[in-house]
Design goal:
Strand content: under 5%
Radius of gyration: 19 Å
Number of domains: 2
Order of helices and strands: HHHHHHHHHH
Number of helices: 10
Number of strands: 0
Shape: globular
Structural class: mainly alpha
CATH class of the largest domain: Mainly Alpha
Largest sheet: none
CATH architecture of the largest domain: Orthogonal Bundle
Length: 215
């Protein structure tokens, strides 16, 4: 049986959420997609030291925003409960993930771009992303039996790496908002192709071809 969080812990979470909400608003408003810690405290309605006390650094705040958007992708996936096997669920997760990023493109470009900055406090972004794709893969139904062992060992990780690669080009402005769904779908399909059952291969190949076309 889970123990309900204490009042202190609830208040702590409310403060953290207020700081993250304020950070998103500032990123959305600023032409450069940036904010100062002083402006963040004012926007959140907290003391100047509060964001530091709760997160430690600006980089840590950006990583917390990354974790929050990944959690939102997972929540949306659970709510949608897409039907189908692992291949179809992964493609559904890709659609959901891109739609979440495009819901606030300016904010999430800044958030993803910040992840390239090293942080002495460490980061769990890679593992968090890997878990997202593992959720979509489920029990690996739809994966070719001969490749299931390899899929179990590495497929979620490879999907996380491929997705991050795609959105890094989007962050750099080399992939337009309107192209992102197509590019991610093609890239994810390229990873899945080597693991899929024959019934999916034609669709995956079509996705890959479509991603390479100029529009």
């Amino acid at each position: 049986m889970e123990t309900a969080p204490s009042l202190r812990e609830r208040n702590r979470q409310l403060t953290r959420d207020a700081v993250l909400d304020a950070a998103e608003r500032l990123l959305a408003r600023d032409d450069a997609g940036d904010f100062s810690m002083r402006a963040l405290a004012v926007e959140a309605g907290v003391g100047f030291a509060t964001p530091f006390n709760h997160f430690g650094s600006k980089n840590a705040i950006m990583r917390a925003l990354s974790a929050r958007v990944i959690d939102a992708m997972s929540d949306e996936f659970k709510a949608a409960a897409p039907r189908g096997d692992a291949i179809q669920r992964v493609l559904a997760m890709a659609r959901i993930a891109v739609a979440q990023l495009l819901s606030q493109p300016k904010v999430y470009r800044s958030v993803v771009g910040s992840l390239s900055v090293a942080d002495s406090g460490g980061s769990a972004v890679q593992e968090h992303s890997r878990a997202l794709w593992a959720e979509a893969l489920g029990a690996f139904d739809g994966i070719a039996p001969a490749t299931r062992s390899a899929a179990g060992a590495s497929l979620a990780e490879q999907l996380a790496v491929m997705f991050r690669g795609c959105i890094s080009f989007w962050v750099a402005g080399e992939v337009a908002d309107a192209e992102l769904q197509r590019k991610v779908k093609g890239a994810i399909s390229a990873v899945l192709l080597g693991f899929s059952r024959p019934a999916h291969r034609s669709t995956l190949q079509d996705n890959i071809k479509a991603a390479g076309k100029s529009r």
